[in-house]
């Protein structure tokens, strides 16, 4: 079945549609802020790490490293939580697992700069996120944290860079959040149109084929 003949997937958590068919795991992923108090067992957590382990990377360098803190070790959890900006602390404190991703900035094979390191760490986290969803978990990735504090707190080497923090756990009840956070947790997601970022021939020129497909969709609706 071709893409233009297939029906769009309706997202179950909001009245929006994907323009083209994608797997429900991708269509329904969102960065929730409400977490259940239920802990994540070590076996399930290891499966998430295994998914990250098999991510592709430049020259198979696998430049990722993860510092994982669970509420089963409260002091370590608080250390990582303290690296977050105040806004993120107020909801991330409820997650049972926090993870700090770290990128090695040089190739182990020759010591040269690896300009793809952040890209590859992102791929590892993407794999981890999808495995989390398969396991009934949610992952909320966090840019708002103190990079230098994290570096000092966890003795991260100079040729490595803290990338992002992720809160991981089972979904909770959004009604337990403060009003401002609840609105963000339940609000509709917004995405650019494909024509806004799919180009050909030169930067900024929407690809002819994607404009054509979009026109076909418009005619059907």
From the 3D coordinates, which CATH architecture of the largest domain would you assign? 3-Layer(aba) Sandwich
Tell me the strand order in the biggest sheet: 1-2-4-3
Count the DSSP helices.
8
What's the rounded overall pLDDT mean?
Answer: 90
CATH top level of the largest domain?
Alpha Beta
- The helix/strand order is HHEHHEHEHEHH
Number of strands: 4
How would you describe the shape? globular
Q: What is the structure about, briefly put?
A:
With 221 residues, the protein is of the alpha+beta class. It has helices spanning 24-27, 42-53, 74-81, 86-92, 117-134, 147-153, 179-186, 208-220; strands at 64-70, 97-104, 138-142, 160-169.
Describe this structure in words.
The chain has 221 residues and is an alpha+beta fold. Helices cover 35% and strands 14% of the residues. The chain has 8 helices and 4 strands; from the N terminus they run H-H-E-H-H-E-H-E-H-E-H-H. It has helices at residues 24-27, 42-53, 74-81, 86-92, 117-134, 147-153, 179-186, 208-220; strands at residues 64-70, 97-104, 138-142, 160-169. A 4-stranded antiparallel sheet has the order 1-2-4-3, with helices on both faces. It is globular and about 60 Å long.
Keywords, separated by commas or semicolons:
four-stranded antiparallel β-sheet; single chain; disordered N terminus; 221 residues; 8 helices; alpha+beta; 4 strands
Secondary structure elements and pairings:
Blueprint (H helix, E strand, L loop, with lengths): L23 H4 L14 H12 L10 E7 L3 H8 L4 H7 L4 E8 L12 H18 L3 E5 L4 H7 L6 E10 L9 H8 L21 H13 L1
Antiparallel strand pairs: 1-2, 2-4, 3-4
